[in-house]
Amino acid sequence: MSNRLDVLAQNNNRPPDEAVSKVKELLSGPWKQIDDAKAEIRRLESRAEELRLKATEIEQSITHYECILAPVRRLPPEILYAIFEHSLPTHRNPTMVASECPMLLTRICSNWRSLALSSPRLWARIHIPFLTEGALGDNTPDFLTFSSSEVCNVLRLRCDAVSEWLLRSGDCSLSISICFVSGFVRQEQDKVDKTTITLFERILTFASRLKCLELHVPELVYLELEKMIHNLPLLGLTQVKVSVSDLLTEGQQLFTGLLTSPNLRHVSIAPHALPNGQLFRNIFAYENKITHLSNHTYCTAQEVLSLLKMCPYLHHGEFSLIYSDLERRPGETINMQYLASLWITEINPNSSASHGIYDLINAPKLQYFDYKTQGSVVPYGEDDHDFPSVRMFIERTPKLLQLSIGRFIFSPTVLYNFLHAISTSLVRLVFNALNVHYTMKILDPFDLRCLIARIDTDSRTVLLPRLEILELYRTRVSDDDILEFATSRMGTIPNVAKLRMVKIVLDRRRAPNNPDIQLAVKKRSHELGIHIDLQLEYLRPAEQVPGYVGFLSPMHISNTAYGARDTVDRTWIFREHDDGDGYITV
């Protein structure tokens, strides 16, 4: 009988009555066991629910007293002060919103409120969003339902709040950022409103303690601020970031006072702050001590040279260089004895007309050179230009520790030659690939295999023996070469430094059958007692995109979104009158 039941269990034939009776007899015992087990489960679940309710009641009865045991309540005030200071945002100044520190600290309990209000350093930094009174004119979008009087009232209250905030800062140096909300400046305004002047008056009451100032303001507002600070020494001001928008006056000299502060060290100028070259003249004090200058607006080579001459103590300079002719005097050299970091982004750099700037700069202490290009960059393979001035500038910087350059600008020979020239000093190398469409027609100028250190090679001939950090973007280097490079620089070869970080962004997918390179490097470095941060980013396979349906799949319904499954699951994706979307048939 059991054989017959096994046969019936394997097909879908109608069972005879005696087989049905036999199966019921065989399963009666297991069915009872299942019923007993489910009954026991219900009993245990009922008991568990009773215990959960009991535990909840006990927890509620002791919660009122448990808070007394919280360790934070026993911390001394000086420890709480330190914790409070570390709770402030570090990437910008704190806002006045109640959900962010330091305001949030005043809403926890009376003790914390008292401690927070009596800690001056918590209130030494502030971000102030603002807008001009009367900015809500006829062109204000309908969704802004605030009336002009409501806006003015909020702005006046904000001025009062700023005063109260800064009064709590005691004698601490101040960091203030002011941002006028964009899109609300009426072009017909010819003078600054009273509320804005009130805000500046409140802030300038503390001008002697002002250390860092960040401004995102319209030109009209900025010029008013310049007038108000004209007779203020601002001796404590060391850092200024300026972004001036809504430029109304052609050729207007903006920086007549702020950037002439005698102790200014850090200056950053936003792209639209300087509309033309006239504004570069004499924007700093005659004998300034500026050490960091980031000029994000477009400059000609001549303007960059002028800025460098104005700042002889510069440690870091950042410039966006556009095409221009350069007036060169015989024997002219700009000696930047303190310059340690120079970042230059060239806009449409294919012409060498402005490259003479690199011949004029003498920076014997330069340690970091970042060279980027934007615009229509012609890869070296399509036009024979290797920017000789840039190349020679790199080659004559023997103390260069960090270099970031575009990968597809220099030919392989030139690239290898200047890497060899700085081989003994370089610690960090970055090959960026901005604004270049990498196709198979472009030969990759950098061969990672040239950096593989081999045991049977004299360490003096190893290229970049001090290299610790490598970043390589838009490459098709093989996994085998990556593995060999990483494992060859793990401190096993004398006088060749151990790698600390390698980041490679590949222009190819990961080979499905290849071993996990990151796992292999991690295992090998662990055996040697070192750590290498290896970051590999492959192209993401299309089949890993959620909802993707391949063109060979029988589930391919339509051609929408390059194979992505259509949400309505239709073959005809166009709207028709019988789609059932409310169309009434007459």
From TrEMBL:
InterPro entries named among the record's database cross-references: LRR_dom_sf
Biological classification of the source: Eukaryota, Fungi, Dikarya, Basidiomycota, Agaricomycotina
Superkingdom assignment: Eukaryota
This protein's UniProt keywords: Coiled coil
Protein name: F-box domain-containing protein
Coiled coil feature spans: 34-61
